[in-house]
Amino acid sequence: MIDFKEKLTESDIRYVQNKLPELFQIAELECTRGGRIGMEVGIVRENILSAFLLKKFGEENTDFDVPTNEKVIDGYLFNTPISIKTFIGKTYSAQVKVFWMVTGQISLDYIKTYSPTCDLIIGHVKWGGDGALYYVPKEVQNEIFNDIKIEKYLKVPNFSSNERGISLSKEAYNLMIKHKLSYNIPIHWEKQNLEINPIDRWTKMLY
Questions:
Q1: In angstroms, how far is CA 177 from the centroid of its own chain?
Q2: Topology annotation, domain 4-206
Q3: Ordered mean pLDDT values, 10 residues apiece, the chain (207 residues)
Q4: How far apart are the first and last CA of the chain?
Q5: What ranges do the domains of the chain cover?
Q6: Model pTM score
């Protein structure tokens, strides 16, 4: 289990608190088309967090060269598999996906064999309010999983709707972030007056 509290300095914590809102806002602006934020923003936010871990802990302690067909693991930190998730909202409403389903049957088969496999890094973005960056060890997830059982641990979607993916339940999420072995960096998410045109960046590189 990675002791995040010991590995991050006060300077690191202040940097995350001050810089992450700006970077996540830039990610949103670059993924916005016609006033709507595209789903790809989640991948960009995950890349930002991966870049922070790489910058902080170095190539010798990180590995994000993970095959694209890997469904859960986003990388390795000190040889420990990690999964990076982010979501936006005032409160949690089953937005952290543990598996993106293809069909209902595949999802049901996945649930039958599911158990936590890696540490979680979760970014709760709450624009105009207080969110956090959480680190939840696999040991914490397994403890909660064994305690409340899979029926309460996961939220299974209605397969007849357009809802996609199997998520952590609200109960499981709340137990995780409050656990004594989990770690969090509180972040006040405030937007700045930024004007960014993502196409301009590419035109400048073309000419």
A1: 13
A2: ECO RV Endonuclease; Chain A (3.40.600)
A3: 88 96 94 88 95 96 89 93 95 86 67 90 97 97 96 79 78 96 97 84 80
A4: 48
A5: 4-206
A6: 0.91
